[in-house]
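Q: Please design a sequence for this.
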């Protein structure tokens, strides 16, 4: 369970109604049972349920059971698509160990707005599901051009480009660096965006194979490849 609270032995933690309902109504846990909690900073802790009901509840923190693991140094830049598929991308990015998720506005992006708080809640849920000790932050929507203007170039951008001919570059040959995977919108990038990305020295293009994938599939495929080759 994710709790936004400092973790220390003996400390009581008050639960929000939704968290208490998750423990009692969904997981069918009762007072006295022990669960795992994390806050994204202090590793994994065991905690005993003092009370969990419809209106809220509380826990008592017991001890640290696993140290904090640093998130892998991978970001995901993607252009939001339809609501359910954007939710899917955020959920899978959290599962696949993205440390930061940046929704971007591109020339052909359909969504002008996102519900950042909802997407962040999806990231929390996904991190809880897969037993992570950190939750990736989900940024507000930012125009790609502005993001590139301020990019420091130390973090390299891995641009999944369907127009890239030939087999995928071996990811194992990529320089060891912090990376950000870039996935375009359903309509792809505009010519202007393609020219700019191609000219930037810190951008590397990769192919995900000969088939054109939907943006959500491409995001999952690229993050899986990266984790398989470069994740630790
Ligand atoms: N521009 C294309 C078009 O309209 O025909 C399709 C864009 S594709 C649906 C959405 C995004 O997924 C692309 O911008 C790219 O980042 C990624 N993508 C899809 N297939 C890919 C592939 N085979 N290799 C690399 N990236 C791919």
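A: Design:
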């Amino acid at each position: 369970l994710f709790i936004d609270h400092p973790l220390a032995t003996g400390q009581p933690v008050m639960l929000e109604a939704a968290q208490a309902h998750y423990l009692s109504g969904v997981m069918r846990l009762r007072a006295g049972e022990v669960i795992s909690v994390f806050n994204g900073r202090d590793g994994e802790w065991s905690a005993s349920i003092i009370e969990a009901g419809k209106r809220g509840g509380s826990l008592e923190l017991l001890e640290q059971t696993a140290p904090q693991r640093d998130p892998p140094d991978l970001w995901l830049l993607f252009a939001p698509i339809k609501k359910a598929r954007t939710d899917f991308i955020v959920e899978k990015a959290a599962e696949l160990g993205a440390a930061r998720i940046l929704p971007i506005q591109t020339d052909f992006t359909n969504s002008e707005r996102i519900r950042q708080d909802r997407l962040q809640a999806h990231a929390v849920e996904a991190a809880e599901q897969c037993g992570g000790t950190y939750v990736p932050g989900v940024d507000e929507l930012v125009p790609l051009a502005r993001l590139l203007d301020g990019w420091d170039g130390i973090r390299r951008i891995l641009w999944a480009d369907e127009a890239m001919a030939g087999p995928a570059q071996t990811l194992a040959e990529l320089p060891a660096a912090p990376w950000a995977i870039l996935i375009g919108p359903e309509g792809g990038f505009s010519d202007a965006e393609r020219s700019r990305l191609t000219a930037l020295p810190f951008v590397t293009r990769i192919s995900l194979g000969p088939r054109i994938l939907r943006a959500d599939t491409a995001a999952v495929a690229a993050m899986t490849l990266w984790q398989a080759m470069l994740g630790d």
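Q: Thanks. Anything notable?
A: The longest helix spans residues 215-230. The pocket of S-adenosylmethionine is lined by residues 160-162, 183-184, 186-189, 207-209, 211-215, 218 (CB under 6 Å).
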